[in-house]
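Long-time lurker. I teach an intro course on protein structure, and each term I like to show students one example going from raw sequence to a predicted 3D structure in token notation. This year I'd like something fresh instead of my usual example. Would anyone be willing to generate the tokens for the chain below so I can use it in lecture? Attribution to the forum is fine with me.
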Amino acid sequence: MSSSNSRYPIVVQKLKKQPELKKSLLLIIIIIFSNNLFGQGKIFGYYTSNVAELGFFVTKIKLNKDYTFEYEFSGDLINQTGNGIYEINNRNEVLLKSENEKEEEKTVAELLSSGNSKIENKKYKYQNGKLFAFHLDGYVVKRGQAYSRHKKFLFWGERYLTKRRIYLKKRTE
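-- Reply from a regular --
Happy to contribute to a lecture. Here you go:
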């Protein structure tokens, strides 16, 4: 074995001897990186909760291609709607920023029936076609309280609260 061959690892020696292997490996690397770089187009669409959190609360978000969004959070006695703009950073994190509208004079009945249109800024992690919410402390929430898919007894009984995976799933409108 000569000293020049011992400097390079075996993989580099194989690539030097087989140029077609080098081309195919380069093509595979380009395809992998292009999918990761241009994957933001998959984020646009309509997302809803996969299960009702605590049995009541459902979140719906529509992410438009012009980087605007429509947001609705509804539940037992609460309804929160809003719209605004969103940003996508390089770690596939979606940051929703609400547009602050000027408060107009409203009657008490309108205030009670229309819901709260003012939403705070929210942050979601996009992963495998799903949006996972961030907690206030900064970590991704992947499990939460929701009703089980199974009955309390084998074929009868109520459903019960349990820890389940909670995320927003992409749906067709």
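Some talking points for your students: Residues 3-37 form one domain. The chain is about 20% helix and 35% strand.
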